[in-house]
């Protein structure tokens, strides 16, 4: 019963939030709604949402795991200092990758998937 209320609240947070969320952030959002949950419970709920294909775990090589609602495919830029994540919706990247794919196929390489993120310093961390 209790876990149903929690999973519903978690789904709702993912649906209404733009951009990636960490488990600790999720806990804070739930707290603001008057709900409390153990980290392990939350992790299990998020895992289930990932398995259902609603949420995606981002492969960003950050100290904490980021999760984001599956919407349109896009990449991320990560600040190397504060680990702030920026969502990139630039289609130029996808178009470029398609060209890379056809280039690879000329070498007999069958390109299936890609996974990358951009790393740098955010405005605040440059000071
Ligand atoms: Zn930063
Ligand atoms: Zn994103």
Characterization of the model:
- The model has no long low-confidence stretch (mean pLDDT 92).
- The chain contains 4 helices and 5 strands, in the order H-H-H-E-E-E-E-H-E.
- The protein is of the alpha+beta class.
- It has helices at residues 2-16, 23-32, 39-51, 91-106; strands at 55-58, 66-69, 75-79, 85-88, 117-120.
- The strands form 2 sheets. It has a 3-stranded mixed beta sheet, with no helix packed on it.
- It has 2 domains: 1-71, Winged helix-like DNA-binding domain superfamily/Winged helix DNA-binding domain (Arc Repressor Mutant, subunit A, Orthogonal Bundle); 72-122, Dna Ligase, domain 1 (2-Layer Sandwich).
- A hairpin with a 7-residue loop joins strand 1 (55-58) and strand 2.
- It is globular.
- The protein starts with a helix and ends in a 7-residue tail after the last strand.
- Helix 1 (2-16) packs across helix 3 (39-51) and helix 2 crosses helix 3 (39-51).
- Bound molecules: zinc ion (2 copies).
- Residues 79, 81-82, 84, 122, 124-125 line the site of one zinc ion.
């Amino acid at each position: 019963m209790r876990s149903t209320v929690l999973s519903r609240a978690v789904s709702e947070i993912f649906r209404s939030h733009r951009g990636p969320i960490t488990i600790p952030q999720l806990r804070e959002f739930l707290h603001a709604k008057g709900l409390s949950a153990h980290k392990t419970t939350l992790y299990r709920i998020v895992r289930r949402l990932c398995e259902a294909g609603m949420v995606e775990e981002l492969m960003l090589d950050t100290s904490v795991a980021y999760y984001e609602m599956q919407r349109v495919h896009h990449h991320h830029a990560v600040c190397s200092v504060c680990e702030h994540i920026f969502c990139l919706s630039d289609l130029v990247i996808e178009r470029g990758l398609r060209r890379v794919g056809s280039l690879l196929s000329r070498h007999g390489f069958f390109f299936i998937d890609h996974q990358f993120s951009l790393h740098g310093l955010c405005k605040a961390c440059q000071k």
